Amino acid sequence: MPCRFQWTASSDWAAHGLTPELARRTEPNRSDRSAEFRRRSAVHQKTASPAGSQNLDTQIAILEARLARSPGDNPAIRELVEILAKKTDGRSKGRAYSTLQASISSRADALNLRPEPEDVPGIADACRELVTLVDSSGINVGIAFTQVARGRVHIIDGAWANCPLRMKLFNQEAVIASTCHVCFKVQILTKSVEDLIKLHFLLWSCKFPRDNHRKTMVETRSDVKHPYKGYVFCESEHEAEVCFEIVTQNIARFQLENSIVKLTHGCSEYGLKYPEFKYSPDGTHRSIKYPHEWRKKEKEFYRQTPDAEPPFPDSNTDVLTLRDALAFRTWVDYAELIGDEAAKKLRTSPAMIKPEPFASTVWAQSLQRRQQLAELRAS
Questions:
Q1: How much is the mean pLDDT over the chain?
Q2: What phi, psi does 43 have (nearest 5°)?
Q3: pTM, rounded to two decimals
Q4: Among 56, 107, 137, 325, which is disulfide-ready with 130 (CB 3.0 to 4.6 Å)?
Q5: Which of 5-14, 16-25, 220-229, 309-318 is predicted most confidently?
Q6: Residue 151 and residue 209: Cα distance in Å, rounded?
Q7: pLDDT (tens digit per residue) in 347-357
């Protein structure tokens, strides 16, 4: 199955609501025609084939059995939830997690919780039902799902960006990977957990030019500001400007006019250590001089730490999945911990038990998160 949204001719950009100027500035990237990109598409087709589907069924059966024996096996829980997000039509009888996913997807469909929800004001009430389904399932999911994604994996110049590997390089060597020099993002900051869930549906519905990777999340890094946010990942500043336009043109449709939309450059950690790397509207970030020794350190790091393949080529699904519902529940847990009153719209009474170490981490940050929310709401 090819990627759902591909680069289109300039004459088709009106369908995305883009101006001719922005359309001209975003030509089909050579990476999408590269052998690497075609190979990754072939991997996608293999996963989506009947044989690939049977393989996922086998993995699901093994993980369900493993969790029946050891319910607290968190690595197995995470792996199973990710696989179920790609296998939404599997057998559920006798399988606890698969049964829960089937219930969530069925209820979400009945509530019209789709990429284009009919009742935007009713999203909170509808998602409260999904959170209740998870809370009352009897399944003890002992880990937090702080973010949920849609779109392809982040692709830069025809290859998976592999952000965890680039961050490992940064943490180990204080080097910003060359791949990250051209990484720009659209960042959307919301002012309540209710708006964060609406943002998830906005990003799910948007038709980005390369089916760009996008995610919605709660912030747990103590030195990174703002609790609720979403990102659209891009491989150039020009592409980020295009995606910025797409997001802003859909903000009103999801009643998110009070959200803040802006561009960022690379990961937040980079700008904290190297302020000159941060995106600046006046373009000063383009004048940053990267140390010559970085290239040598990066080359040596990759020699010792080889790259890998992404588990799946995309995070796309036509229905809400268990992974989505678990993220919603985590976001409500987070909102309760930091004192966001909007959490009351999404859960009847606060959950007494929340996953660790997530709960302790967020509780320790709760004062600063409340202050950040107050600043955002005052802006």
A1: 87
A2: -60, -40
A3: 0.86
A4: 325
A5: 220-229
A6: 11
A7: 988 888 999 99
Q: Which residues contact 5 (CB under 8 A, 6 or more apart)?
A: 207, 208, 209, 210, 211
Asked whether 196 and 290 are in contact (CB, 8 A), the reply is no
DSSP 216: E
Query: Which residues, other chains included, contact 27 with Cβ-Cβ below 8 Å and sequence gap of 6+?
Result: none
271, two tokens:
């700008």
Q: Count Cβ atoms below 10 Å from residue 196 Cβ, excluding itself.
A: 29
The owner of tokens 């020794």 is 293
Q: Please give the Cα distance from 372 to 339 (Å, whole number).
A: 12
Q: Which domain range does residue 245 map to?
A: 1-379
Buried-exposed string 321-356: b where 16+ CB fall within 10 A, e elsewhere: bbbbbbbbbbbbbbbbbbebebbebbbeeebeebbe
How confident is the model at residue 31, as a pLDDT? 40
Q: 269: which residues sit within 8 A by CB, 6+ positions away? A: 167, 170, 221, 224
With b for 16 or more beta-carbon neighbours within 10 A and e for fewer, the 21-52 pattern comes to ebbeebeebeeeeeeebeebbeebeebeeeeb
pLDDT value at position 90?
A: 63
